[in-house]
Small conductance mechanosensitive channel (Pontibacter lucknowensis), 286 residues
Amino acid sequence: MFDLFNFEAYSTNITNFVMLYGMRLVAAIITLLIGLWVINWLNRMVFNLMVKKDVDVSLRPFLKSVLAVVMRVLLIILVIAQLGVEMTSFIAILGSAGLAIGLALQGSLSNFAGGVLILTIKPFRVGDYVEAQGQGGTVHMINIFNTVLKTPDNKTIFIPNGPLANSVVVNYTIEKTRRVELKFAVSVNNDIGKVRQILQDLINADERVLPEPAPVIVVTDFAEHSLTLSVRTWVNKENFWAFSWDMNERAKAAFEEQGIQMPVPRREMVGGSSSNGQTPKAVSQV
């Protein structure tokens, strides 16, 4: 026969269980939703505060990400405690899981440590043009695990922070000035003094050239039919490319106006006429 007493006992136990853990589940869900909203609000407030306090642009997204991760971990622990889970056991399980995850994600942890190292030592900042890991571009963002570069042709490059922190980084922007070295090849038939004076006049007429260190014009290569003069000047970093392009164009125009000869390839015939009627080979020389 159906045991009414046992049924009522089971119903009572189930009701008590639902009332107890159901309320805890509802409270945990409410805590989770409110916690996520508070975390987002705090993140925005902290980020706006960093902007107001003029914190380094490179640090802002990194600190925001770290703060969000830490607060979410604390929120998860709080929600689990709300469900009535024994925290001592949970922390032990969390520690074991953390060790296993750490071993599985050694590369990611290395990238995280690299990001901290980059932001501490600051070999580059957001906005700097750098070359590293065989790539070059303007630093767009420094994240927890990678650094984002934007190339001049608008490609996006993601470089892991671990290898980046342990590699050679060339920063083209960190200094205020840069040296421009331009090479001009002319015929050996020209007067070196005249060529040098033409280049010196072009330098003197350009206000972007810095007086110190003083510009230098030297002969860096001498061949049978050509010689190369190198122009070494210092300019502000923002004028580097514009000055280089303008100087090349103005030098060509000045050489043509002053009658400066360019090195012309010469062809010499090797050997005489062959018995099979083939044309002798020609050798080009400059």
